[in-house]
Amino acid sequence: MAREFFVEVPKYGEIPCANATQYTGISEILYRLSCAAIQSKLYIVVNLGEVEYCDFNTDSSCPSDDGYHYNTNVVFDRNGAIVSRYRKFHLYFEPQFNYPTLEYSTFNTDFGVEFGLFTCFDIIFAHPAVELVVNLGIHNFAFPTAWIDELPFLTAIQSQALWAQSNQVNLLASGYHQPDRGSMGSGIYSGDEGALNYVFDASSGTKLVTSLVPITSYHTTSYFKRFQQPTQSASQDPPLEPYHMWLREDLTNCSYKPIDPYLNHEFLCHENSFCCNIEYSLNSTSYSGHLKLLVFDGRRTVAAKRDWFEWQVCAILHCLNDTLESCTESSPESSNHPKFNFIKIQAQPLKVEYGDEETSAAQPGMSLLDTKFRLIPQSQFKILRWRDSTTGNMNAEAETTSTSEISHFQVKTVALIQKVYGGRL
Question: Which family is this sequence assigned to (predicted)?
Answer without folding.
Answer: Belongs to the carbon-nitrogen hydrolase superfamily. BTD/VNN family.
